Amino acid sequence: MIIRSAFLCLALGLAGCASAPIEDTPTRARVADSTLPPMKAFASHRASAPTRSNANIAADFLSLHFELESGRALPAFTRFETPITVRVTGKPPASLAPDLTKLLTRMQREAGIDIRQINQGQANVTIQAVSRADIRRALPQAACFVVPNVSSLAEFRRDRRKPKTNWSLLQTRTRLGIFVPNDASPQELRDCLHEELAQAIGPLNDLYRLPDSVFNDDNVHTVLTGFDMLILRATYSPELRSGMSRAEVANRLPAILARLNPQGSAIPARAVSATPRTWTDAVQTALGPGTDPAARRAAANAAARTAEAQGWTDHRRAFSNYMLGRMTQVYDPDLAQRYYATALHYLSNSPATELHRAYIVTQTAAYAVALGDGNAALQQIRPMLNVAARSENAALLATLMMLQAEALDLTGQPAQAQAVRLDSLGWARYGFGSDWAVRAKMQEISALNPRKRGG
After folding, report:
1. Helix (H) or strand (E) holding 177
2. In a domain, 213, yes or no
3. Residue 101 and residue 105: Cα distance in Å, rounded?
4. Is the distance from CB of 135 to CB of 143 less than 8 angstroms?
């Protein structure tokens, strides 16, 4: 476009390009960025305090800080020992700045961490916004990631096999790089900011046994929870310092948690079993990229067998059945519903699993809509709308609202249905990103309605 416009001006030079009337100037019509309603955003809020025993939280703290996701043990506790500065580089989309500001404000207020953003100079934490393709070329399995002692993707590529980027050799934290996708939906980018910045300054591990944390690879929680903020606050308590051993940290934790979370001292500890590597590997195979459908189903079945053999009755047993439901519903929707019912049964006995139930309701309510049972769908959806909103999960909230709109149509309430459908679009734009992705989700859910597909 620039080359063609310049050539046109040169060709018409003798006719006086600069003196042409404005209304005669050839232009490309300017249109709005989106024909959908404006994108919505969640107001900042303070997360609820965890409702588990401090004894359990202490065990979680040690596993989070002294193990890597691979299972390798870390020899020393590490954190930043100075105020933390954060800088954004690369090509960040417009949504990154306000979401990062909210996150840093929460870390300051809820975790008591001295952290702030700077616009130039060397920062302790550099967040580089790059394309998803760049991230995949660096780490094919990652949506976003964090590395010690680098500040750019180029530096990571150059030094990825050197000791400086080895987490297990770290003695303290001074400089880290976070790499996030600049061409993902606003929610996906925000989710990356929450988890990767929390791990850049706090624990490095993820634990499937945690029901109420972003430090869990099931990706149910997408923003830092009250548990996460407590872990970060404890990480930066004055009683701890970089270089401490696991035993030294364990010795100080009871007093730290009693001070920071006094209500947790009165709650009895619950027996929680470790998650075997066989279950974790099966889950990653079932949900990870590059696996064919038959292998996914086999891995999901393997995870369910392991969960049963472990005798679990918590969210991990539920998650195993949820995976089986997702793998099954394409070719046997009735069987999938039985898997979802089993998952909901285990969640009903597990604390802090409202959000897990909301995810399953998107599947069970969709089934009710497909059967034309709008009342059953509404009964399931309505309690979960506030759950999705409190969790700041716009994609989940938009999906529930779109299902609610179809259910309202089925129950003879077209005006209410249209209002809910319109309201869902602002959340969908944050959760799913581009207009085509929002419209695809709308069409997918609309197609469930038997009145719209001809019976």
Report:
1. strand 176-181
2. yes
3. 6
4. yes
- Ordered DSSP codes for 314-359: SHHHHHHHHHHHHHHTTT-HHHHHHHHHHHHHHHHTSTT-HHHHHH
H or E stretch covering 187: helix 186-201
Each residue's pLDDT tens digit, 404-444: 999 999 999 999 999 999 999 999 999 999 999 999 999 99
Residue found by looking up tokens 């700045």 in the block: 97
Is the pLDDT reported for residue 8 higher than 70? no
Number of compact structural domains in the chain: 2
Is 178 a member of any domain? yes
**How far apart, in whole angstroms, are the C-alpha atoms of residue 349 and residue 128?**
42
Give yes or no: residues 261 and 387 share one domain.
no
Residue 455, domain member (yes or no)? no
Q: Looking at the structure, do residues 116 and 193 belong to the same domain, yes or no?
A: yes
- How large is the average pLDDT for residues 105-131? 97
Which band of pLDDT confidence, cut at 50, 70 and 90, is reported for residue 33?
low
For residues 137 and 157, give the distance between their C-alpha atoms in angstroms, rounded to a whole number: 10
Strand positions, DSSP E, 55-148: 84-90, 115-117, 125-130, 145-148
Q: What is the pLDDT of residues 226-251, one digit of tens each?
A: 999 999 999 999 999 999 999 999 99
Q: How far, in Å, CA of 325 to CA of 310, rounded?
A: 20
Structural domain boundaries enclosing 372: 277-446
